[in-house]
Amino acid sequence: MDQNSLPHADVIDSLIQEFNKLPGIGPKSAQRIVFYLLRAGDEQSKSLAEAILSLKRKITLCSTCYNVTESDLCSICRSNKRDRSQICIVEQPQDILALEHTGIYGGMYHVLHGAISPTEGIGTDDIRARELMDRLKDGVVKEVILATNPNFEGEQTAMYLSHLITPLGIRVTRLARGLPFGTELEYADDVTLTRAIEGRQEF
Hints:
25% of the residues are buried. This protein is of the alpha/beta class. The chain has two domains: 8-58, RecR Domain 1 (Helicase, Ruva Protein, domain 3), CATH 1.10.8.420; 61-202, Dna Topoisomerase Vi A Subunit, Chain: A, domain 2 (3-Layer(aba) Sandwich). Mean pLDDT is 87; it is low at 1-5. Helix 1 packs across helix 2 and helix 5 crosses helix 8. It has helices at residues 10-20, 27-39, 42-58, 75-78, 93-102, 129-135, 152-165, 190-198, and strands at residues 60-61, 68-69, 83-90, 107-111, 143-146, 171-174, 201-202.
């Protein structure tokens, strides 16, 4: 009898299904996690549950850049050491982690929380483009770096934003093509990201 077809208690099957919904976790991985938790002590399971609940209760979006934070402003927006004349546009908060890890970029960020994708029903009003344009009104920003993912949706989003920003007289650049097409920013290594930032080109 196949292991996946073995009868389990409903609560086990339910939890396996929930883990299986997470990105990168298939049915077998979900099953291994559930049975690991079943064998683990109560304290470990309790700590995991509390950490997940705390994540949902305490984490909010920065009122300026829309990065994830526990306060009104994220640590980057609060910092006096960042270059406020540069804004790097990313699709998701985890992209900021990847870029920050390189240590090469010292400007500000703006998180779109998505990319334009008509096939998935995501249009221009579904990304935080309007909020970005509001940030550009005061004339402080001199360069916008488009760091959307190097795939069709990312390119389409970058093109749309470029059309909005260029008439403002702000320099618009794009990460260099060291990033393979079709990949996601968060999975790129530090060297590739560093070269992409340093070699950015006019869009």
